[in-house]
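Fold this complex.
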Amino acid sequence: MDPTKIAVAPLAIAVGQPDANRKAAAEAVTEAAAAGARLVVLPELCDSGYVFDPADPAAEARGLAAPAAGNPTLTQWRALAAEHGLVIAGGFCELGDDGRLYNSAAVVDASGTRAVYRKAHLWDNEKLVFTPGDAAPPIVDTDFGRVGLMVCYDLEFPEWTRLAALDGADVIAAPVNWPGYSWPAGERPAEVVKAQATAAASAVFVAVADRCRTERGVPWVSGSLIASPDGYLLAGPVLADHPAVLVADCDIPRARNKRVSEHNDLLADRRPELYARLSATLTAGRSSLSGGVKPRRSVQKGP
Amino acid sequence: MDPTKIAVAPLAIAVGQPDANRKAAAEAVTEAAAAGARLVVLPELCDSGYVFDPADPAAEARGLAAPAAGNPTLTQWRALAAEHGLVIAGGFCELGDDGRLYNSAAVVDASGTRAVYRKAHLWDNEKLVFTPGDAAPPIVDTDFGRVGLMVCYDLEFPEWTRLAALDGADVIAAPVNWPGYSWPAGERPAEVVKAQATAAASAVFVAVADRCRTERGVPWVSGSLIASPDGYLLAGPVLADHPAVLVADCDIPRARNKRVSEHNDLLADRRPELYARLSATLTAGRSSLSGGVKPRRSVQKGP
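Structure:
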């Protein structure tokens, strides 16, 4: 069987310009399709943009959000998926039936929206805008393999990525917006390292679509990548500030072989009976959030 | 407060020569002490050696194992710790009171053995020799910080490293023997990537002591390293085939600051109520161990 081509599309997106953003996404999907991609991953919140007005971020986000049903972004993706015979995973700004805002992502194919996921681990000012989701990453069966879906900071929680692997994901598709910061020379950004480790820990493909250029002065890591089930990079990170479509050949059945030695299997070797405390509530005082200590990651802020 | 110097000591060890191996460890500890180290990490099974006779590995291991009480290796470490005013974390071949063999590690200081840990996730032929431990990684309070302890393949289970962080480890000390294999040019070995991601995911220091040279024809990754709470390398990986003592300045209080943005804390942001399935028994058929598929990691075998 020929390998499956997976594409990730770092886009240059402008907050508040959903039509232009959808146009940029369509161009990237078309380019990915021309390269033979069966799955295209787009960035987080790639219709609304990300850096909402600091004066009232929730108000600006609300003006850009739409319900999943009849959503213009998802409708566009369905048309693109049908036209090109591929699957799209990307982020959109969702207005819930409950009136709340969600930092959501969807997997869409020619048949329509296969899954909607609401980001469960919110980053920084997103907590002022969005309600966190409370459902596990969906796993969508496609004709080339099973696509798990999560968004940005979710990917930094090994509990979350492991759940997707246990649920059978062959590929974890992760729309992200990684705000730029600096890292030591000779190193890859920690988000990239974590994505690689995620792939290797559970022998899954990980496909990350980050942003490029800047938005209201905020730069991005531009860390779009495709990692193999061994944890090595098949494409990316670009670490360059221009739109691009990265494509890699992915031998999906490799993600169904969790063996790493004659006697070892990455999932069967787990000791779930010893992991119960992972689901216990954090002991009071263990966290440092209330400690008033300066954050360590130097996140770039908007103007 | 001055940073704490942490050392990791990749050793050239010969299976079946515990006296020579203890001498090599003593030399490394002395060198680390001269460099000002407060904590020295030694490799896995660094008294017995690792590559037991393939004809009857359990028999050879049994001949080299000793109980933790009165153990000659731990006795030597206590003397070294007292002489140099430091803490030693290393692996030894333990004969349990129950007559079983354990791939164990200990944290030892001038007061004696502070903790013994039995490897919970066994690698390859170790399953023919050792009984897996069933206790969580110990966390040992020292005058410079809290040292968590686990062994080699344990470090590849994000569930396990997270537990150590939740239990308050500032430093995860990991004696390892990483059997050599090849990885793509431009990449670091996946074990190194996982160690870095472990550090970054929970904002802890990770100190790994691997082996060097060969043992019965088995080479090693030689991936000894010290990673910062940001996931970047403060020392290593050596990736060179000679004994060495790596030392890094570690600002231990950094590991007590889990904040990564104004509104984010790596531990407080967890959603433990959504992680319960991590401790559920694996669904039958999900694992591939019985599938007869060729292992993906090409492990070097002895002659």
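Chain B has one domain: 4-291.
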